[in-house]
Amino acid sequence: SDEQSSGIEQVNQAVIQMDEVTQQNAALVEEAAAAAESLEEQAENLSRSVSTFKLGEAAPLFRKTMSRTAGKPAMKPATTDQDWQEF
After folding, report:
1. For 66, what's the count of Cα atoms within 13 Å in the CB-facing half-sphere?
2. Which residues contact 16 (CB under 8 A, 6 or more apart)?
3. Beta strands in the chain (DSSP E)
4. Whole domain around residue 10: which residue ranges?
């Protein structure tokens, strides 16, 4: 009936919107990961540049403070672009 058809259309539109938002979110996550990697490289470059300065007695404390702790590995994507389909 018309009511069922309308309901199905609304569900279809909701699924399309969720798909779009999910893809946008995935793109933002990739951008954030790239920015984090770039920031890490910049921090390493800065650390190398600063290491040329003599720090005297503060050096051991500075090195201890600046030592990098191991972070969590990046999560792998739950799906690939191949799994997306257009409606």
Report:
1. 14
2. 87
3. none
4. 2-66
